[in-house]
Amino acid sequence: MTDLVAVWDVALSDGVHKIEFEHGTTSGKRVVYVDGKEEIRKEWMFKLVGKETFYVGAAKTKATINIDAISGFAYEYTLEINGRSLKKYMENRSKTTNTWVLHMDGENFRVVLEKDTMDVWCNGKKMETAGEFVDDGTETHFSIGNHDCYIKAVSSGKRKEGIIHTLIVDNREIPEIAS
Description:
The protein is mainly β and 179 residues long. It has one helix at residues 86-96; strands at residues 4-12, 15-23, 30-34, 37-42, 50-56, 61-71, 74-81, 84-85, 97-104, 107-114, 119-122, 125-126, 130-134, 137-144, 147-155, 163-169, 172-174. 6% of the residues lie in helices and 62% in strands. A hairpin with a 4-residue loop joins strand 5 (50-56) and strand 6. The radius of gyration is 20 Å and the shape is elongated. InterPro entries: FAIM1, FAIM1_dom_sf. It is found in: Cytoplasm.
């Protein structure tokens, strides 16, 4: 990896993925790695600018690396996720998902709720869930190992805040990680 020019960490519902890009400006080589696995390799590309598109994670999220010349032999590399800059994608993602990290049974678990679909992911796997209406909102039940879990959704009572989602594991509230 002598021509490594860019590395990005992208948080998706199924986990955080590392994207690495090699660009040989003398050989014209382009190599894209996702989580250490080679996804694209092109040798002897005569056009040194352009884009490489590939897919990341369990949901096959579309990613594009844009290669632009900024001056002479200097290049800029930008990553787009689903057609948005990484920054914009992550800002939007913090509005459309909730993420919790917890430690139990000697293991770390990353739980992600996709608010638009109410899908729940744990350590990269989409969980089997059961929804239930309760007096003050809804509960989405699932299990992690032999632990009973649910995400409680209640109205904040404020239009700007919307619905508040809380993860409960074995009757204990888990704090959300800041995104």
